[in-house]
């Protein structure tokens, strides 16, 4: 079995490094400066328990890989890049290999199932940061991340067990989940703060705008009949296995969306987070003005090249009033 890590950012980089260092066969797909640095020097993984460096093969495109029948392909790119990634995999003959959507949002799994036979979903709880090329920081300790994994749309399988076993052997905690999308809708509920902290900074993640966004989501879920796990509630697994640790000299920038702004990545995932709630609201006739507004605002921040947290409360209030008029 070989792991193909498609998207070598915070999550993909940590997975590639730890799986490699635990003896698993890994090939990563990366781009830009991250690709160049890993090729030259490997990937540095910073953790509360010390720094590690992993050397593994890395390529720019799936066409550079000779895919094998037992490859397990972990999708770790942002959701806005998923369709192009799936089309690139299909073009290289991928068909029956296991695809694991280790991504935020709920749009990736149904899209992947349009292309491939075996799709797993994963709820990713992993505080990690990627700002500088060639370096990823994972703040969780003693486990770097916690994952619930299941078949899409539901159930478990031998493939789920295989992936969980590899992750459990590599510094993570992974569990089979019979209804993984229930967990992913719960994670989406938490990730609505990503659009908020992109504009207002990390301190706004639990502020009034985030509460309004989640109130809208709860109303949409109720109308749509969507059940979700309260992944923000106290979880004894997290309390026992994945506390937030300190990494000397490494600061947490904020959400993955905020990190995209900090890096000047040129795109942001908020269309598939707050934008998912806005879309569901339109489908089911539920007003979602706060989620729709922050979806639009995040794109404006990308176009303007703004860093995360660049707006004040007053500026957001004015912008919302103008947007709503």
How many β strands by DSSP? 14
- Biggest β-sheet: strands ordered side by side in the sheet: 5-2-1-6-7-8-12-13
The number of distinct structural domains comes to 1
Give the uncertain stretches in residue-range form.
Answer: none
Q: Approximately how much beta-strand content do the residues carry?
A: 15-25%
**Pairing-aware structural class of the strands and helices?**
alpha/beta
Helix content: 40-55%
Describe the structure in brief:
With 325 residues, this protein is α/β, with parallel strands linked by helices. The protein has helices at 10-21, 32-41, 82-91, 108-115, 158-168, 180-191, 193-200, 208-224, 236-241, 256-263, 274-284, 289-304, 313-324, and strands at 2-6, 25-29, 43-47, 50-54, 58-59, 71-75, 98-101, 118-125, 128-129, 135-138, 140-142, 146-151, 173-176, 242-244. The protein has a single domain (2-324), classed as Rossmann fold (3-Layer(aba) Sandwich).
Would you kindly provide a written description of the structure presented here, covering whatever features stand out?
This protein has 325 residues and is of the alpha/beta class. The chain has one domain: NAD(P)-binding Rossmann-like Domain (Rossmann fold). It has 13 helices and 14 strands. An eight-stranded mixed beta sheet has the order 5-2-1-6-7-8-12-13, sandwiched between helices. It has a four-stranded mixed beta sheet with strand order 4-3-10-9. α3 runs parallel beside α4 (108-115), α7 (193-200) packs across α12 (289-304) and α8 (208-224) crosses α11 (274-284). 50% of the residues are buried. The model has no long low-confidence stretch (mean pLDDT 96).
